[in-house]
Amino acid sequence: MCNMSIVDLTSMAQPQKELREKISTMLGSMQEDMPNYCYQCGKCTSGCEAFILLELEPHKVMGLAKSGFIEELVNSDIIWTCLTCFKCKERCPQGLAPVHVLFVLKNLAVAAGKQIHTGYSNMLQSVLGCGLIQQPRDVVTRKSEVKNRESLQLPECPKPKDISKFQQVLMKAATETIG
Amino acid sequence: MKMKVGFYLGCLIPTEQYAYEMSLREVLPRLGVELVEMEDASCCGAPLRSINLLLTLYLSARNLALCEEKGIDVFAPCPNCHLALCEAKRTLDSDQKVRERLNSMLKEEGLKYSSSARVYHTLDLLHDKIGIEEIKKHITHPIKELKIAAHYGCHLIRPADVGRPDDSENPQKFEHILRAIGANTEDYTEKLNCCGAPIMITHPESALTKTAQKLKAVQEHAFNALATLCPWGHRMFDTKQSNASQTIGETLNMPVLYLTQLLGLAMGIEPSKLGLELNLSPIEQLKVMGGGE
Question: Which of B140, B285, B276 is nearest to B224 (CA)?
């Protein structure tokens, strides 16, 4: 992993007002607020599931977003370490949602054409192709027998009826953003 | 109690977590819940949140609309789906502009969101709709002498402002059900901790370390088994338990079962119908499975 630090990168930068506005609108569409009232208490970081192993510090993300250093965040790999456990949102004394700020930042990274992990593009491709993030798989029992939906007598896996219509709508949505 | 719900499976359950689906199909109809197939369903969009939140919102709205078309409520046994559907519902119900935008997209697929369907998860269906007393009436083979830990799954209890089936900091409904089927259970410090699943794509080693740390804690608290209600958590704790143990260099030996599998056993349903051969963790060591513990 490179570029995990978000602190050093900010020293020479100017805040980006337009991007800050964009984030604010996107958060608004998710019924969440811009971190204007974050007072850096660190409660989010103290409970963060990604803090100890991956050094994600949500309060720093909030501080940078509040100040408008969006590009620095969008370019940092740290935003991809969030486990989306929602503890930060649940516990924020100001009713803010670092987890949603991180979603929005990742969305911006994708929209800006930054390279995303192949696992994500595979899931998206699969949803476009069959409606689900993966095709039904063969599984193995503890006794190493191979089983699938059919041999387990489960009905056929769900799939959008008109898959090309479904694809069309999704492809269009994928080029837009939430806010 | 009699009710009819759209059986919305999401992605992970119908493509690999078959034991959850099998046990739900056995248990719920016996408790008065009719499961209506949703042949046209797709992903709820939750796994794509990081890519594009609009996609997530569209996919959730789409599946809600599919159920509304049938005039029934949605039953989403995956906490990740359940949260995405509830979030979409809240957003579309409170923001007219977003709702119009989404409805114009849904129109292309001949669908319309009208806010009529309620969303249930296994936990509130069992605890609030069916109820502990009713469950107790169906127990013929109580799961005795086992101390079982509960893993709720993050998205089942947080964030509270979207409306979750149980309390965000002190959930107890899972434990009530475990006690109703005869098992012992208690709170443990790591109960609310994450399973690691959401970063399995980007940081697999850290994800599996999270899994192993929680399993190790459950083991150290002398639980006989860990029960789950989330296909993502179950995949980490059960399916990937041996991979997880390598990340902390210790042996993990924790039987992991879906709560619905335990409930099925307590109701006297045949193990093969509950998909118990599919659990990869050492569940055969449990007495209910004919083992010694």
Answer: B285
Number of structural domains chain B divides into: 2
Q: CB under 8 Å to B20, separation ≥6 — which residues?
A: B13, B77, B231, B234, B258, B260, B275
- Provide the β-strand partners of residue B36: B6
State the Cα–Cα distance between residues B199 and A102, nearest whole angstrom: 14
For domain A8-111, the CATH architecture is: Orthogonal Bundle (1.10)
Each residue of B50-104: pLDDT tens digit? 999 999 999 999 999 999 999 999 999 999 999 999 999 999 999 999 999 999 9
**Chain B partners of A89 at a C-beta cutoff of 8 Å?**
158-159
Measure CB to CB from residue A84 to each of B91, B198, B206 and give the nearest one. B198
The residue type of A41 is: C
B10 in a structural domain: yes
Q: Are B184 and B170 in contact (CB under 8 A)?
A: no
Structure pTM? 0.96
**Among candidates A116, A135, A145 on the partner chain, residue whose Cβ is nearest the Cβ of B15:** A135
How far is it, in rounded angstroms, from Cα B116 to Cα B69?
A: 10
The CA distance from B235 to B241, in Å, is: 9
B259, two tokens: 């709560």
Cβ pair B41:A120 closer than 8 A: no
CB-based contact A103 B50, cutoff 8 Å: yes
Q: Is-contact A56 A50, C-beta < 8 A? A: yes
Give the distance from residue B196's alpha carbon to the nearest chain A alpha carbon, in angstroms. Answer: 7
Supply the ipTM of this predicted assembly: 0.95
Comparing alpha-carbon positions, the chain B residue that sits nearest to A165 is B109
CATH number, domain containing residue B57: 1.20.1050.140
Q: Looking at the partner chain, which of A123, A136, A149 has a beta carbon nearest the beta carbon of B48? A: A123
Mark yes or no for CB contact A127/B41 under 8 Å. no
